[in-house]
Amino acid sequence: MRTTGEPLVSVTIPMYNNERFIRQTVESILSQTYTNFELLVYDDNSTDASFEIASSFRDPRMRVFRNARNLGPEGNWNRAVSNVKGKYVKLICGDDVLYPECLERQVGIFEEHQGGGISLVCSQRTIIDPDGKPLIKKVNLIEGGMHEAVGVSRKLIRMGTNILGEPVCGLYPADLLGRTRGYSARVPYTIDLDFWMQLLALGDLYMIDEPLCAFRISDESWSSRIGDQRYHHFIEFMEDTAAEKKFQITDLDLFIGKINCALHSVTSTVGFKLFASTSQENSSHA
Question: What is the number of structural domains in the chain?
């Protein structure tokens, strides 16, 4: 239970070998227009300078922890939300970025709709490259406003891709954590989507129709390390989600989704290869 004087929001970063990006990530959080938050950084026994860089910040809202051994994404993500003080929680990977008004806007939606049954507030996001340059200025796969969980779930399955966004996109009530299974990497590529679906089983979605954050594509990112397994992981996630009767997903939804998932897999694989080759070429000329 929250007590007087505690932060309204807990922002938490599960970090591993993010020395190239963690400074920008932390600075984007500490520069928020909304200031009533705590920032928790959990270093998963990085082998680079990530811990030292994060520890160099001097802000009373920020605490940095280091795991005695590497827990992996599932273990570290769950540790990152295990001792939050805020009423709301935002988990951010150590290479992503918040735009200045992100917390203010997302908290505002929850506070405006108290008792409205919202379990997740997301915003659109910008896709950036390792240097922070926008690759896609706005990813808009779901319209702004309130959306019932069933409709969102069926659309997600039919589209065969992530229409909600990565962890950086979402804010959710801390008191719902105890009603979920937590973050699960049983299907590694969809660790974030699996958690979003657990939240949507408990309430509805509010989507803010403008980019308030940035998701970075880089060789170090979790998505990149998953590589060619993405397609098989997403199919497994879709089948698991379709098995949940509460989402009312039909056989036709799943059939269409598998076709779209295959198409997305081809385009994303080509995109990642082009991105990798461009990154290598830029590095060789640097």
Answer: 1
